[in-house]
Every structure is written in structure tokens, then in C-alpha cells.
Amino acid sequence: MHYNEITPENTQSDVSKTVNSSTKYFLIPEIITETYWIVERVLDGDTLIVREEFGQVSKEIRLYGLDAPEVHMSRKMREDEAKSHLPAAFLQELGLQSLDYVFQMCPPGTRITLLIEKKNELDFWLRQLAYVILPSGECLNELLITNGWAKASHSYYCSMLSEYQQLNFEAKQQHRGNYLSVDVL
Predict the structure, then answer these.
(1) What is the rounded distance in angstroms from the CA atom of residue 114 to the CA atom of residue 88?
(2) Residues 112 and 106: beta-carbon distance below 8 Å
(3) pTM for the whole structure
């Protein structure tokens, strides 16, 4: 099996030979790069279970700077229902669409690189926060927001937040992803 590690020195695709959009993530001050991770499970549009490719360690990853609709009834679903004034069943359908997008872009078995901000490594539930860099060199976090499958969120601060907020605004204006069905998430 051949794996092209994505590092700050190697952020070019063998196919295109152009600078990858993920280069900016490697330039974040005090970024920690963790290579050789495999997607084990996709829990929802903003959470993955990953495992070491050459080891036994697994961990739950929460994507930096975004929030995708929930796929299960929960406390968070009820909070989102109250904030958005949308029924939980509709929000759950949006969550399933976001989940489907993640499955398309990053199905179980996908080799990924994790980028972690040293001063902002864990969320409230002690899950690892990360930017997920795909084999294509694209950032899953950015793709979700750009395509309207998740909204930018300040719940878990990240260095890319202002850019993510701008991408979210553009996705909403252009009715991409979940914004095809609704203006408020």
C-alpha cells in the first residue's frame, strides 16, 4: 500500500503539481502534525473515530471551527431545535445529509493527516480537536463549510474561524448544501 504523507514540505498533489489549499493549515503557529491515521468510523458531520495506521490507538476527533446538524435525538438536538425554530425531525434529516457528505469525502478506511493547534487541543468533552487533511490535500473542515454541510462555529475556537465564518456566509448566500432547504442553522 502506498501512502503519500502530507507534511508542510509535501503539500503538493502528484497529479496536479499545484499548491494545495491545505498549505495554510501547516502555517498555523505551533501546529502539531499527526500522520498515518485511518478513519475507522464516521459518527456524524463533525466527529470521526480514527486509529493509528501502524498501531492500536484509536481516538475520537471533533472537527475544528464547525458544527454540523445532529443525527440522533439528544440534548444538543433539542437546543438546536429551540435556537433555529425548526423541528427536530427536519434538523435530523439535515444532519443525515451532512453525514452522507462526510462518507463521500472521507469514508472509513481513508488515510488522513491530523493537524492540532497546540494551545487548543481538546473540546469540553475531552475529544481531540483537529483539522483533517484528506489524501487529496484538501481540509475536510473547510470542505464541509464551503459546501454548506456544516456551519462555522465559535464553540471550539480555532485559528481559521474568521475564514470559516466568511466561507459559511458565502455558502449560505449561494444556497449550498443544507442551505438549499433552510436559511437558519
Answers:
(1) 32
(2) yes
(3) 0.86
Using only C-alpha atoms, the chain has a radius of gyration, in whole angstroms, of: 16
Cα–Cα nearest to 133, from 56, 32, 29: 32
Question: How far is residue 100's CA from residue 92's CA, in Å, rounded to a whole number?
Answer: 12
Q: Other C-beta atoms within 10 Å of 16: how many?
A: 10
**CA–CA gap between residue 156 and residue 14 (Å, rounded):** 34
43 contacts 49 by C-beta, under 8 angstroms: yes
CATH level 3 topology of 23-180: OB fold (Dihydrolipoamide Acetyltransferase, E2P) (2.40.50)
Give the residues of the chain that fall short of pLDDT 70. Answer: 1-19, 184-185
| Tens digits of residue pLDDT in 66-113 | 999 988 888 887 887 788 888 888 888 998 999 999 999 999 999 999
